Amino acid sequence: MRSFRLFLLTCCLFAAGMAQAQTFPDDSITKKFDAWRKQALQEKVYVRTDRSGYVTGELMWFKIYCVDGYRNRPMDISKVVYLELLGEGNEIVLQRKIEMANGFGTGSMFVPASLSSGNYALRAYTNWMKNFGPEYFFHSTISIVNTFVKTSAPVAKANSGYDVQFFPEGGDLVAGLHSKVAFRVADATGKGIIFRGAIVDEKNDTVAHFKPGKFGIGHFYMTPAAGSKYRAVITDQSRRRSSHPLRDVKESGYVMRLIESNDVITVDISASSQADNYAPVYLFTQSRESIVSKEVRQIQSGKATFRINRSSLPAGITHITLFDKNLQPTAERLYFTRPSSAMTIEGKTPMKIYSSRQKIRVDINSGSDANVSVSVFRNDSLPVAGQSNLFEYLWLSSDLKGAIESPEYYFSANDTTVASATDNLMLTHGWRRFAWSSVLKNKPSFTYLPEHQAHIIRGTVLNQQGQPANGVLTYLAAPEKFVRTYGSRSNSKGEVQFEVKDFYGNKRIYAQTNWRVDSTFRIRIANPFSEQYAAWPLAPITLPPAISKQLLERSVAMQVQDIYYRDQVNHFLPPGIDSVQFYGKADEIYNLDDYTRFPIMEEVLREYVPGVMVRKKRDGFHFMVIDKLNKSLFRDDPMVLIDGVPVFNADKVMAFDPLRIKRLEILDKEYYEGILALPGVMSFFTYANDLGGFPIDERAVQMDYDGLQVQREFFAPKYENTSDKQLRLPDHRTLLYWNPLVLTKKGETSAIEFYTSDVPGNYTILVEGISKNGEAGTSSNNFSVTKLNP
Fold it and tell me: Residue 13: what pLDDT?
């Protein structure tokens, strides 16, 4: 007996020694995670619109925030954000490219009368964000009412069914292991429903009952049996039943269970296989791509326990991942640490009641130096889908998968009910911005580059067989006054990329190869907008008869503004464009109207352009620019441009009517632009900078292409004296003020001023902003406007 006790003690000491000897595999997990997060920069985009509901014919004003995905600080990496309005079935309604500076961008969209009444998805993203999937894009819902078309009541779908999902804690149902299973049941619009449910096995024996808490979300417990099949029977409030299978039960594996206490989070691990006894398991905890903790334990008697100090967890979502003995991720769940508070920010008026056409001052104060947007609009009964504010989005919605119903609820109170609902949310909306398989391979691959300097136009060069062609030099340009000509050589996938500068508004672009060298290739320009879509359910819009008066008032207000103030509303600010050609100042400039006009191009060049020699060879005309630096002729033809578009056929230039040419610029030196090496430049300019009818080679890709949006100036009339107030022009504005770029200082008051309109009612002042340190805040206040003096 004594020998047996000694043997047992030796085994225990050996097991304890093994436990002490285990260390966390930093080379396999930590270093690879570090390497990945350094390369996989994360961006978050948030869009604040001036309001959430519109009638057709109005302008939608917006401000875009682009922040560091880890610390929520404004980030000046991407210079372009793609904004889209999508209808049912991801139908593309509107698309814009918005210029960004220092992490902020502004713009507007006209809501056309061609849109039908309904809810629409507003989504936004950068080019870099396309590497990580559409679930990572910003999404919100915008309500639009077409007051010119009678809207019928929404028709219920005949067999819409419910979206029923189950999420075992940690990821899997494992035979014989007691498991917590979260669930979410929503209707076709994404809203959670009230129901009761039961889990039954293949014998129809009930193993668990459940019902939801908030928003159709909740959890239950069960111990699955090996080889059993389970399904959920759902009974809604209309007593309609439906059956939904649970995921298959694994014969072996791990189950994770998280238990909260005041100071410690306990993570219990259960293993199903006896073969896992004394095998190491590793718990890796990270939040916002920062490593919180990493520990190793041994499975003993099918169990292992980890403890995490709650004080060590930063605000926001924490990812807790279990790795098995083979260093493969086998279980994961999320945990939310509520931020202590939002940035204090407020906009207040000295009075609560104002008369029409009266000046209003709004004093804005914030708890930090911040970049703030301010909108002032009339409250009405129009249906509004609503959106989360900046604080809620950055801390919660942006880090979870899918639409979050009523995100404000999870910040409403700090009690056990909200905490329980929040944890159910973590279990049902779990998501990370990366796949562990990509991290552990340590070979991140990114298709899309960040647009750090300017918008990037992408394309593919194809050969005659339609296959990607490697090593082909391509050119892209758009006719304009200040020419920008770009070159790109195709890679092994045939891809070309042109980083275009000063590219605003709609342009006609030309993409081509040098047909004298590469005559058999064609170029296909890629769609700059993402063609991948995340699930974003849109509820049908409901317009009760009681709001017909408000709809009429809003529609009349829109039409009055359009009739009387169209020119002011459609005033656009000129973009800051570099007024120098891409090749700099030309060495020779010929304004042809200063000379005798000849009807033949050859005469023009021979008579008064001494810097260019014209030669005719067997294959046609050639231009030879005199290299004044080396006092010789360039061996190769110069780059010939018509309004910035490359021309590789000198015969066409010689046949073109010189009376359509206003100016010719000559660069008599070698010039390098990106990968382009230019042996001199001959740059022709037409009078309207529109090619003047010059026949560009038919092999060139020609297409209209929208550049960055030109900024519209927000218009609001001023009534500074009695005569202004007595003007007979009606003022039916319901959006009194919009300013997306108000800068505040901590401890100081920033004042803004505007005038009320002729429309009485209750108005909201919505103020939202973010500090340099990533502190976000939102607030609203109200005042009233009456036609009578207060």
Answer: 40
